[in-house]
Design a protein that fits this description.
alpha/beta; Rossmann fold; UDP-galactose 4-epimerase, domain 1; 2 domains; 6-stranded parallel β-sheet; two-stranded parallel sheet; 12 helices; 14 strands; globular; disordered C terminus
Amino acid sequence: MDKNSKIYIAGHRGTAGTALVDNLRARGFNNLILRTRQELDLTNQEAVADLFKNEKPEYVFLCAVLPCGAANVAQRADFIYVNLMMQNNIIHQSYLHGIKKLICYGSGYMYPYSAQNPLKEEYMMQSNLEYNAYTMGIAKIAGAAMCEAYNIQYGTNYLCLALNNLYGTRANFDFGKSRVLPALIRKFHLAKMLEDDNFEGVLADLNMNEKEATEILNNYGIAKDSVEIWGTGKVKREFIHSDDLADASIFAMENINFGDLAKEKNPQNTHINIGSGVAYSIAEVVDMIKSIVGFNGQLYFNTARPDSTMDRLMDVSKINSLGWKHKIELEEGIKMMYQWYKNSVRGGVESKFINLTYTTSFNAINNLNFIADSKRICNG
């Protein structure tokens, strides 16, 4: 890419997309094509075709995703339909319009439920996926396979980067939509305000009246002297900061080609794992957040509530051997994230109190969650 290249970022308002836009602009790339979901429905084949025809992008970052979040079990059909449609439309139009290079993103759910950690790229499709996330896993496998197949058949240069547990500034802190780290940060932030007898701050953060806020706090296990965490805290997770993902994405776009990955006669599983290569137990993560926020109360691990899914740790030896390594360690990243949250307008305004329900989310392990907009897509 050169500084005048036309670059399309699909999903530029999500956690990954915002970091990518900031990183590109900081490097002098300003010829960016950006569309919100109100401006462009990525599941609409004709609309996507018109974008490519009219804008003529040269490079594409496919960040748009209907993510696994609080409502994952309820949205299993949406996960496969929406993500497949977006991937199919963007990848195929990239081929039809001669895009020079494309990067899409995979997930740890691409790997078998029983796979041994750390997860190597070649483990994909070796066994059954986790049941609660298999439609997401199938959609992401299809995206990786589609890039690989187009490269083999049509000579394109499309890459897929697979990651676990993305976090970062500008994350969504809405309990019904957030990933595990922003949800935990917000829980401890609210508990700290209760500890400081700042109930007005709690009401402002939740954007609710006293009755509604009290019900939320009770149901989420947030009190002035304790915070409830679902499960044992023993499950381990790997996290990658959105700034690191943006850096890895640009590195791959500029330095890695499909030919570097397809060394065998019949190339398969040529996607690349991206991550820190370090896993933390949820208990360790909670202790970090508790210390950073400055909350002095107790932790209550509610073992009657389910632990999250299997431990997931990416094997990042391939991307490391190609010349990229993460820079932001988890504690530093959490500090950055919390500072941004405090400086923003609550980091993600809570909807007015709606249909509170328990879920057994496989991503937000410690949360009660809102089942809200089932068509939420990180496309703006």
